[in-house]
Write a structure and sequence with these properties.
With 410 residues, chain A is of the alpha/beta class. Chain A is built from 18 helices and 13 strands. In chain A, helix 3 links the parallel strand 2 and strand 3. Chain B has four helices and eleven strands, in the order βββαββββαβαβαββ. The chains are: A alpha/beta (410), B alpha/beta (139).
Chain lengths: 410, 139
């Protein structure tokens, strides 16, 4: 890779061993994908839950954090994805002291590295949305697909080690979706159905994700009526990324790079049709006899407007099942201030902050609480939790709240 | 007719290893597909469900899902409950980043689908410096 003078200094260790290790890691990745150079980035976002890190990853971070002050801090705003717990609610989740101790060690290491513990996967709704053509290094697939597609920013999927490396060096290898040519559509999808509820938006995203099926494919989609909002596109993109490893989509007439089909698509692309029946089939594949053990709203974290809707649905009810609603530390104080938390918790639910359900030792908390049948309106989450031994069910927010009250999905 | 036994990849990383190939036209995600404690594929619908991946060379279609695998490969390596190498028809950045951190050999991008060219259970050599996958012996 071609290096600038500054990069040669980092490579030679003249800026310290931590940025040197970071740059060498980035060069290995860049060389694999044939990157010719680095591109400066303005923000980094690190996914680093302790279930993924394990003891080995925590020790690795702690070792970086022992470097000399002045040689270990990130160079650009570097924020974090949800943590593996909400310390205030860990007991309710059935998490163990050892899990919490590991979490605290990671937080301590990140703080020493200069990382800002935002603990959110909806930073584009809460912290700062990237602008069009802004190069960033984001590390949550839902964040990346939203930022690339809805904001027109430029990021690859950056796993935790690479996102941290980008924070430490202020750059990332120039390959993939940092390149204009990579952002053109590779397949055309016609949909004949515009969802209404968030679970339907997620199911449509998941259905398209299965069609796309590959990180390097970029779908251009026509047929959506109206103008979907941020929460709808959030669930749509998060599910598409989860089911298909997709990092960028274009909606003709809606997303910024595709005012017209011809802006992103050459004639003759492989074409597919997605119908309402296809979307219903995906939803039906996550339904059973209706019995439920736990109701969870998470993945992505809920926006203030989602919590507002949930609070209205919870008002005056009494739940017989646990109901967990997960949001970001930026949204939670407002939810408290506006009474949404009280409405949800008065009904018997819990509002959790700064974590994500599936990143919080999902297998262990299922065993601790006897949870197997889980109802949610998140298509992303039903895709993930099957691998953790759950029987996940996808339904509307309204149906999930009814299930919390009656014990069964209607 | 002779059978081709050496295949060239466009993308490569890591050191040379030899081992038994587990081959399937299916995806790979450390979070979605594996019981990382037992060292087996745990997702019931995965084509390698129930198989041990430990010290095997995995030859699969592509990467799936989220970013967790970037950390998880490193964690699996620390316990020696890890594949010997990863070979894909195509791969996303997450697994490349994870392989770089864990120092795992990886190949991807062949002229034909590598999952159709290598028999399940074959002994193979992955040589990233030469960007080759070679069949040493057939099962």
């Amino acid at each position: 890779m071609n290096l600038t003078e500054e990069e040669r200094d980092i490579f030679a260790g003249r800026c310290g061993s931590v940025p040197q290790r970071a740059l060498k890691h980035q060069m290995a990745v860049g060389a694999f994908f044939g990157a010719s150079d680095f591109v400066p980035v303005t923000q980094a976002h690190i996914m680093a839950d302790t279930e993924s890190l394990g003891e080995a990853g925590v020790v690795w971070l702690e070792e970086l954090a022992t470097a000399t002050e002045g040689q270990r801090r990130v160079r650009i705003p570097t924020i974090t994805d949800p943590r593996g717990t909400d310390f205030a609610k860990a007991e309710r989740l059935g998490q163990t002291p050892s899990m919490l101790a590991l979490e605290q060690r990671v937080i301590d290491a990140f703080v020493k590295l200069g990382v800002t513990m935002t603990n959110t996967c909806i930073n584009y709704q809460t912290i700062q949305a990237p602008a069009r053509n802004e190069h960033v290094a984001y590390g949550d697939t839902g964040v990346v697909i939203y930022s690339n597609s809805v904001c027109g920013a430029r990021s690859n999927f950056e796993g935790g080690p690479s996102a941290l490396a980008a924070g430490l060096t202020g750059r990332t290898p120039r390959y993939g979706f940092h390149l204009s040519e990579q952002r053109c559509a590779t397949l055309y999808i016609r949909v004949d159905y515009t969802p209404s509820s968030l679970n339907e938006w997620g199911a449509l995203g998941g259905t398209i994700g299965r069609v796309v099926g590959n990180y390097w494919n970029v779908p251009v989609i026509e047929g959506i009526e109206g103008a979907p909002g941020s929460d709808q596109l959030k669930h749509f993109g998060a599910a598409m990324a989860s089911f298909g490893s997709v990092a960028l989509f274009h909606l003709v007439g809606i997303t910024p790079e595709a005012s017209r089909l011809s802006d992103v698509a050459q004639p003759g692309l492989p074409a597919f049709r997605v119908t309402k029946a296809d979307v219903r089939a995906l939803q039906d594949s996550y339904r059973s006899d209706g019995r439920v053990d736990v109701v969870v709203f998470s993945a992505p974290q809920l926006s203030l407007y989602e919590l507002r809707t949930l609070a209205e649905l919870c008002r005056g009810r009494k739940f017989v099942l646990p109901l967990l609603a997960v949001t970001s530390p930026q949204v939670k104080p407002d939810a408290d201030r506006f009474g949404y938390t009280k409405d949800i918790e008065d009904a018997g639910g819990n509002v959790l902050s700064g974590m994500c359900f599936y990143q919080s030792y999902a297998r262990e908390i299922a065993e601790a609480n006897g949870w197997k049948r889980l109802a949610t309106n998140s298509a992303k989450m039903v895709n993930i939790l099957g691998g953790y031994g759950y029987k996940p069910m996808l339904a509307s927010m309204e149906a999930c709240v009814e299930a919390a009250e009656s014990g069964r999905l209607p | 007719m002779t059978m081709n036994k050496r295949f060239i990849a466009r993308h490569a990383m890591g050191h040379t290893v030899r081992g038994t190939a587990l081959v399937a036209y299916d995806g790979f995600s450390a979070r979605y597909d594996l019981d990382r404690i037992a060292g087996i594929f745990s997702r019931p619908t995965h084509k390698l469900a129930g198989q041990s991946y430990v010290d095997k060379i995995l030859i699969l279609d592509t990467a799936k899902g989220g970013v967790a695998s970037a950390w998880m490969l490193h964690e699996m390596k620390s316990r020696s409950v890890v594949p010997l190498a990863l070979v894909f028809n195509s791969v996303n950045p997450i697994l490349v980043q994870g392989a770089a951190l864990a120092n795992l050999p990886m190949l991807s991008g062949f002229d034909e689908e590598i999952t159709k060219l290598v028999p399940f259970g074959a002994e193979v050599e992955v040589n990233p410096a030469a960007r080759t996958l070679e069949i040493i012996s057939w099962p």
